Amino acid sequence: MAEAGKEARRALKIKVGSVTRLHKEIKMYEAEVLAEAEKTEKLRASGACPHDVRQQARTLLCALRCRAAAHSRSPPKQENVQAESAMMIPDCRLRLENALADLETALVRWLLACY
Fold this sequence. Notes:
The chain is 83% helix and 0% strand. With 115 residues, it is mainly alpha-helical. It has a single domain, classed as Methane Monooxygenase Hydroxylase, Chain G, domain 1 (Up-down Bundle), CATH 1.20.58. Helix 1 (2-45) runs antiparallel to helix 4 (78-114). The radius of gyration is 21 Å and the shape is rod-shaped.
């Protein structure tokens, strides 16, 4: 019984960590969308040509992805960087909902193992 309680507690700790990480990830993507929107607006307000607005130097994230994929890509367009970040938010929210459901299940198991 005590061993089952330890396993349930360990699983609970892992699930809490996952929920915390996903919450931080959502906040990071939301902040990134705002920052990229500001960057795009600054480019537009400064009178940059449309090509400059669409074309931006490769970000670190994109560079890491390109290295991981072992191929070269053209630099991302500014609007695409913003859209990519915005697309990640619903995915993260779905993963957070799933992680919360897993956490609830782990909590029930832990409570049943303890009492």
